[in-house]
Amino acid sequence: MVEEELKKTALYEVHNSLGAKLVPFAGFWMPVQYQGIIAEHKRVRNTVGIFDVSHMGEFEFSGADAEQFLNRITINDVTKLQPGQVQYSAMCYEDGGIVDDLLVYRFEDHFILVVNASNIDKNREWICENLPLSGVDFDDISDDIALLSVQGPKSLEMLKTVTTPDLESLPYYHFLDGQVTGINAIVSRTGYTGELGYEIYISRSNSEELWHNLFEVGKPFDVEPIGLGARDTLRQEMKFCLYGNDIDAAINPIEAGLGWITKLKKGDFIGRDALIKVKNEGVKRKLIGFETSGRIIPRHGYPIYAGGREIGITTSGCHSPMLERGIGMGYVPVALSEPGIKLQLNVRKTEHPMCVVKTPFYSPTKT
Length: 367
Known about the structure:
- The chain is an alpha+beta fold and 367 residues long.
- The protein has 3 domains: 3-55 and 143-237, Probable tRNA modification gtpase trme, domain 1 (Gyrase A, domain 2); 57-140, Aminomethyltransferase beta-barrel domains (Alpha-Beta Plaits, 2-Layer Sandwich); 284-357, Beta Barrel (Elongation Factor Tu (Ef-tu), domain 3).
- 19% of the residues lie in helices and 34% in strands.
- The chain is built from 8 helices and 21 strands.
- It has helices at residues 12-17, 37-46, 66-73, 120-130, 155-159, 207-217, 228-237, 272-281; strands at residues 7-8, 21-25, 28-33, 49-52, 57-62, 86-92, 98-106, 111-115, 137-140, 145-151, 163-164, 175-180, 183-188, 197-203, 224-225, 285-292, 303-306, 309-320, 325-333, 342-347, 350-357.
């Protein structure tokens, strides 16, 4: 994608002024790091950090049949949501392959889906292909919304005095419609790091004001800006999937370890028949977590071997800043997916020992 086609979040110039390394990502210029991935990663694990994730997409649904439609196009059970709740879910194709993973927000009179930035156009087209002729009003509001993610063990302490209504009583995967530093916002107790954290949706026009306000409020808590590089290593320590790496149209949610959000008994939804077949026949491969030893760092695309034969592929991998060793994710046959099994990682045509481990790799102390 050429430079003139790349979008910029409302905080692009702020990131520039902070010396961020800006790179093309999902059609946007995004900050990959400020002072360094390891330092930023540890900041989120130890105190609190702020991410600009305004590149994410937001779709709004309303109308008499909105709930019914969303229950048909997603794999989790939307009817179980109460106003003020958030649900992790996904959309699937008829063959069970994943269109995207997403969040569903239920309000009193409408819903919002939060989708991956790289899939906004594809998701919009998929939704429009399946929309009924009446009963559902759909609007892509992605360009109007900015999203800041405040993550880390001190995030509640930092935000509670500047957020209304009361943030302390907000449960995990719930949200409130209120204000942060006097700015109208939707605040959800969600995130992509595994730490205690909150995601703040505001009007694009208010994003720079809120950014500066939050850094002023966060000074006593050692708050720092965090780039997408640390966002990636943080999510990998939790074994959170990334679309395009760990899940995609060729992978179904059951083999990806997302059976817990796949509600086959809720009634008809797109992909259900294919997923029932997978469930009944059993998956042939599973997404595992593994560790390497020494200085070997797993990377996306590295082959996984057993007994001199390639049996899988690495989907994500990095050096874990908290564990100080290589960690990775990948698909292998079910028979080789149990923690403790020894396999080999092929790095530049040389095999190195790796071991399947229980995940998440790292367990934060969140409240």
